[in-house]
Amino acid sequence: MNTFILSDNGKPNHKAVEILTKYWDGVLPIDPAAIAAKMGITVIPVSSRGYSGKAYQVNNQSVIEYDQTEFLLRQRFTIAHELGHHVLSHTDNGHQFRDEANKFSFNISIPEETQANKFAAELLAPEIAIKHFVFKEKINSLTQLAELFSVSTVVMKYRLTNLGLL
């Protein structure tokens, strides 16, 4: 088992690094629901309501809903994505985000959705941990890395590409 200590290197995903530094125990795979709970955010599984996830506030309480009928990797990304909406202040002033599955594309042009996707990718697959496995453990299989972090190969390919490793 590997544990990791993070440092914020000023990259655009610094909010995810801040959250990981404060709430992550350094063990993989990262549990976004546990992190949200440690932050005092209520995480609610729902079934087939026509959206993958929803982030909103009610009575000054931050809430994340996610579709528990979707496959596990999607659920994990959805929770991390919705957590991103809260952390990035997208849900302030009564704003809420209801995310259909098609909004999770990394090519989407809605700024808040793009930011939440980047947050989720960094939260679930932190740069320091990826570099550890690539450079120290010599793991270069996209599939194997995706399995280690419990993310889809699409997310892992995105991370490796953006880190200049692919």
Compact description:
This protein has 166 residues and is α+β, with helices and mostly antiparallel strands. It has helices spanning 14-23, 32-38, 72-87, 111-124, 127-136, 142-149, 153-162; strands at residues 42-46, 53-58, 61-67, 97-99. It has one domain.
Entry keywords:
13% strand, 4 strands, alpha+beta, Rad_response_metalloprotease, 4-stranded mixed β-sheet, globular, IrrE_HExxH, 166 residues, disordered N terminus, 7 helices, single chain
What does this structure look like?
With 166 residues, this protein is an alpha+beta fold. The protein has one domain (14-162). The protein is built from seven helices and four strands, in the order H-H-E-E-E-H-E-H-H-H-H. The protein has helices at residues 14-23, 32-38, 72-87, 111-124, 127-136, 142-149, 153-162, and strands at 42-46, 53-58, 61-67, 97-99. Strands 1-3-2-4 form a four-stranded mixed beta sheet. Helix 3 (72-87) packs across helix 4 and helix 6 (142-149) packs across helix 7. The longest helix is centred in the middle third of the chain and has 16 residues, at 72-87. 35% of the residues are buried.
Instruction: Please provide the count of β strands.
Output: 4
CA-based gyration radius: 15 Å
On the 0-100 scale, what is the average pLDDT? 87
Query: How many domain regions?
Result: 1
Shape: globular
Major β-sheet annotation: 4 strands, mixed
Protein name: IrrE N-terminal-like domain-containing protein
Pfam families: Peptidase_M78
Domain IrrE N-terminal-like: 37-161
InterPro entries: IrrE_HExxH, Rad_response_metalloprotease
